[in-house]
Amino acid sequence: MATRGIDFQTLSLMDALDLAILIEDEAQERYEDFAAQMDQHRTPAAARFFRLMAFNESKHGEELSARRAELFGEAPRAVTREMIYDIEAPDFDEVRAFMTPRQAMEAALASEVKAHSFFLAAIPVLKDAGVKALFEELRDEEVYHRELVTEELAKLPPDSAVSDEDFVDEPAPQ
Amino acid sequence: MSATCEFQAKDYKSSLKPIWCPGCGDFSVVQGIYRALAAIGRPPHEIAFVSGIGCSSRIPGYTTAYGFNSVHGRSLPIAQGIKLANPDLLVLAAGGDGDGFSIGGGHIAHLIRRNMDITYIVMDNQIYGLTKGQLSPTSQKGRVTCTSRFGSLEEPVNPLLYVLAYGAGFVAQASPTDLVGMAATIEEAIRYPGFAFVNIQSPCVTYGEEAQQIKGLKAISENLAAMGHNPADRLAAMDLAQQYGQKMHLGVFYRNPEPAPTYDGLVRERQAALSKNAPPKEQILDLFIKK
Ligand SMILES: Cc1ncc(C[n+]2csc(CCOP(=O)(O)OP(=O)(O)O)c2C)c(N)n1
Ligand code: SF4
Ligand SMILES: [Mg+2]
């Protein structure tokens, strides 16, 4: 989780909204990639869960985009995807072939915690009151998402003590 | 000529879905390459990306550049041929530690001494991934694999020292433990006018050992810039490079402050000089048939 070339002290509300949209885009894309990897490696339950996460991220992105359009119309964007690195997107190494739904949810939970820490760390640096309010809202949303995933996790039966990997061929290296 | 429009990382991502094992470090390397290419801004059709054979060597196919997933160990001579045939192309070469330092190890010295303007990225996972986990030239001594059941008896090759000793003008190391640093390092390597080498410690989640996964790598990583290392100091770079395997230094070990002329540039100059007095094409055959 990191950023490159963003000055949080001078961040405008429009840039902050664009940044939030890009963060959702990045997470959506990562979950889609994870779902595709799970399909390829015959791990359908985790694939379904990652698709659901991708859908949630896209919905949140759309809400933020609507707000941005309402406030700033078509004004050109100053921040780019190249400035953010895995803010809410789960880390590349969070997935494994044959992972259980519980492990998939735990990966999502870790990424919500990561995003929460990002907003938490950025807030004290912000100068603009509107940007601060937006980041606080986003920080609280991460807490809410975390609670949702934790609730879903609690509903799952515990994973078998024996690893699924013991029953299947090891993934074919590529 | 380069187009003037701006490119984003996604413009370099192909529609092909990577078939690496989920969690493989190479997923983050390809992202680092997309970002570096976006920062450079050359359109995909002006980029030639050559690899050898191995899991890592699948990488050109996941980009929109012209790609050639070629022959095991032969990415560099092919990349050199492409650069000489069309010096205007941005030429990248990539592959694994086995591809680069076992079967292909002999080629590196020649591209370095010629200072070919090529960026060479090695995804060093200290194992032969594609062929299911045999000992590689960078595997640590004592490593147990399917071809070293009782532990390897050999010292590993040190890729950093190897290229520094041959005189490479740009030598760096990166890892998925620092994604910003990885993209910036690849970008800097591409911008270097000459042969640039980036060793990327890219974990193999299927055959790699615990210590070589992200957590293990984080524990031994140190940022060269933060340490105050001067990348113009080749001897200091060689000193630090000796710690390969124990420490993971990230960033630029060495950047020649006065890059030598590139071979591709010299060839172009020679061609221009010789073609001044060259007879027209239609007369060339006459040189051979006339007494
Ligand atoms: C001439 C030749 N010899 C051997 C092989 C078998 N082979 C394919 S990939 C590979 C090694 C792969 O290891 P590495 O280059 O480190 O790439 P990784 O899969 O780890 O990314 C070998 C020995 C081959 N394809 N061609
Ligand atoms: S075998 Fe290792 S290097 Fe190859 S795709 Fe799988 S994790 Fe990556
Ligand atoms: Mg390898």
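qc> Chain A is about 60% helix and 0% strand.
qc> done
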